[in-house]
Amino acid sequence: MLDKDEDLESSSPVWISFADLMTGLLGAFVLLLVGVMAAQLDMATRLEAEVEKRQVEEQKRQSLEKALAVPLASGRITLNNGRIGISGKLLFELNSDKLEPEGRKLLKSLVVPLRSYLQSRDEMLMVSGFTDDQSIKSRNRQFDDNWELSAQRALTVTRTLIEEGMPSSMLFAAAFGQEQPLVANTNEKARAQNRRVEMAPVPKTSNTAKP
């Protein structure tokens, strides 16, 4: 009788250890399952946010296309990823920041649709100037470099839009010089593409939204 009791007592720690092991494994499995579910939920949330973001961007693109249907149809402007592009030759003579009459006429035609679009979305318009990669000093001593030329062109367009009825609180100018070319500056045709002004609706910051 004593031997049986001793055998039972000696086997008890084994069962206890096995139970502890199973409990540990079950706990680890639960933690793993919770982690997987959390990761899937996070992935689903991110996917949903990305889909919503793309839907908003698509709606914005369609609204902008509708607002600028006439100048887009005439080929005088382009629209790519929310950026309105105008060839430099439509606005300025080569290496000049003096606006051409046809350029002013084009900008005037954009004021009403752009103003309406910006007001409906509570956004601002960033007017950006770009140049080719050729040194401006050898072509026009009025400007120190391409940064200055692109800045002056952006300012000229900005001021013209204001003169034609765009509220000054709705836009600002930016200069990129020869940076961010549309195509490689391999020949004159390519350089002509890179000499341009772009306008892009952007969200108002907390500072600009305040009067």
From TrEMBL:
- For this UniProt record, give its keywords in alphabetical order, as a comma-separated list: Membrane, Transmembrane, Transmembrane helix
Show the segment(s) annotated as Disordered: 191-211
Per the record, the domain of life is: Bacteria
Q: Does the keyword Flavoprotein apply?
A: no
Q: Which residues cross the membrane?
A: 15-39
Q: Which SUPFAM superfamilies match?
A: OmpA-like
- Domain OmpA-like, by residue range, is 79-205
Which PANTHER family does the record match to this protein?
LIPOPROTEIN YIAD-RELATED (PTHR30329:SF21), STATOR ELEMENT OF FLAGELLAR MOTOR COMPLEX (PTHR30329)
Q: What is this protein called?
A: OmpA family protein
